[in-house]
Amino acid sequence: MSDMELIDCLSQLSEQDALRLHNAGVDLAADEAYTQKIYASVMEKAGEKGSLNMKKITIRKKRLALLAAAVLLVAGLVTAGAAGVLRLPKNTDELFNATGLKPSDNLLQVLDPEYVENGDLILSGKSVQAEGYTFTLEGVIGASRRRNVQIMKEPVYEGDVEGVYAVITVVRDDGGLVFGYGDGEDEKTIHTIGASPLIHGAMPNVNVYGFMSMERETGVPLTYCEDNVLYLFVDITDFLCFADKGVSVAVYGTMVYSAEEIGLYENGMPYFTDKARAPLAIFELPLDKELADADAQREMEHERPIAYPDLPFTFTGQDISEFYADPVWREQTGG
Amino acid sequence: MTQTDMLAALREDPKRGIALVIRSYAALAEKTVRSSGGTALSKEDAEEIVSDVFFSIYEARDRLDPEKGSLASFVITLARHKTVDLLRKRGGSAAELPLNETLESGSDVENDVLRRETSRRLALALIDLGEPDATIVARRYYLGESYASIGKRVGLSENAVNKRCLRALKKLRSVLEKGE
To answer: Which residues of chain B from 136 to 165 reach within 8 Å of chain A, CB to CB?
Structure first.
């Protein structure tokens, strides 16, 4: 079968199979512009003014995922006997069942020993103020998430996905609600705070893969807003093996990551360059270096095209020509 | 956002509810309209039908019963029926009806079974790609979305989306060929 034949088949999937994809969690949602257009038309037919407050909708939509994450995290902490150490949302039982999140049975101890007191996980407590907001790295916790991919009546995958999450809180200095960064059209209408892990020393354009770890199944960060405090749960599970190199979490206010927005100091620490559109904060995670795993690093470097400035493409296993075709890479390297 | 949440929102705050439903299903509805209507429909026609679909749901919001089927199925069924209705109103001749409808009624059973089986296997293989590749491929080749737009949605560069599409096609072809 040629590519064209395959693409033809994909374009003609049956309605039943489109529903399969939808039910399995494949994102087939409409984009915002189309949603707005259809909404306005429907409201016109209904004789009502078609003004759509997308901010409100986005926030409400995210509350489900966020609450679920919060539930899991609160429970995880209680399991570890560290409740009260980490600032987390209040009880979120209501959405616990709806989202499939649950406390981790095995809360991983991943922090550097100097951050751990009396055997409990302790918060980092580092705060950064920017753009009228205060960002705080609260700490790192373990959590698990029920994954149940259902196709029609037959479950094709069931199981718990264990994870480790960095928790960052965002508070507006004037006490208001937290959303709406940036000047872009999307940023005006959509809650756009993002947070992504970055491996120290990795090329910025390949560190973009960190952005896929925000939430491993959807690529969307788990967030929850309660009492005007926004909680970001950044999935760092896949990055623990790089503890010896160092891992940071960048917090930003744009929808799309651009490699030129992140630079690297000589020691590999990432920083926001002057081209960053909405830089907010970068926190170095206090990970225990004992977590470093060279085999896991190689495996991840093989799966994802991670490369280092002094060791380009050594482990990637990918076609190098693809990287040279990347305009960002070409701009950064002069060729 | 689950179907239950959307139905609850439709009842409690209809404007917000219908916005959620539109966001979740408008792309599927539009695809259904385009598939059912083919070249007989303009872009404006398709948008009008999609708008009609969601207006019908908005009007029927208090009567929607989740026990009788999923909201997604309802949207797709409405989209197909409204498309065929429009085409029939415009002329009514079989020649103007979409090709897939005439083929189905032409009972080429063997081809139809084969087409459905290929579609099913392809959908399952696509799901097996995992995320974000499943979403990238579905949006690119099923919905016909641009690389740039997909990249914005999944947080990848246009170039990276292109590469992932090419790799995914390779995987899908391999899966399909193994099963033959």
So the answer is: 137-139, 141-145, 149, 151-157, 159-160, 163
**Residue whose C-alpha is closest to residue B150's, from A69, A306, A300, A28:** A28
CA dist A197 and A206 (Å) reads 12
Choosing among A17, A150, A198, which should be mutated to test the B contact, i.e. which has the most B CBs within 10 A? A17
Give the CATH number for residue B117.
Answer: 1.10.10.10
Regarding whether B161 and B139 lie in a shared domain, the answer is yes
Range of the domain at A250: 54-333
**Nearest residue in B to A50, CA atom:** B15
Query: A20–B51: do the CB atoms touch at under 8 Å?
Result: no
Task: Examine the domain organization and report whether B97 and B111 are in the same domain.
Answer: no
Smallest CA-to-CA distance from A19 within B57, B163, B124 is with B124
B112: chain A residues, CB-CB within 8 Å: none
Interface residue B5 vs chain A (CB under 8 A): yes
Q: What are A174-198's pLDDT values in tens digits?
A: 877 665 444 555 444 444 677 788 8
Q: Is residue A45 part of a domain?
A: no
CB contact under 8 A, B152 and A21: no
Cβ contact (<8 Å) for B157 and A39? no
> Does some domain include residue B56?
yes
Q: Does some domain include residue B70?
A: yes
Q: Which domain holds residue B90?
A: 3-101
Top residue of A16, A31, A60, A220 to mutate, by most chain B CBs within 10 Å, is A31
* Structural contact between residues B31 and B143, judged by C-beta atoms closer than 8 angstroms: yes
**Cα B12 to the center of its chain, rounded Å:** 27
The complex scores an ipTM of 0.85
Same structural domain, B137 and B83: no
**Amino acid identity, residue B123?**
A
Separation between Cα atoms, residue A59 and residue A63, nearest integer Å: 6
Structurally, chain A folds into a number of domains equal to 1
Residue B36 is part of a domain; what is its CATH number? 1.10.1740.10
**Which of A51-55, B12-16, B56-60, B136-140 shows the lowest mean pLDDT across its residues?**
A51-55
Cross-chain CB nearest to B138 (options A12, A21, A30): A21
The answer to whether residue B25 sits within a structural domain is yes
Q: How do residues B104-140 score in pLDDT, each as one tens digit?
A: 444 566 777 777 888 888 888 888 888 888 999 999 9
- Tally: H helices and E strands in chain A: 10, 11
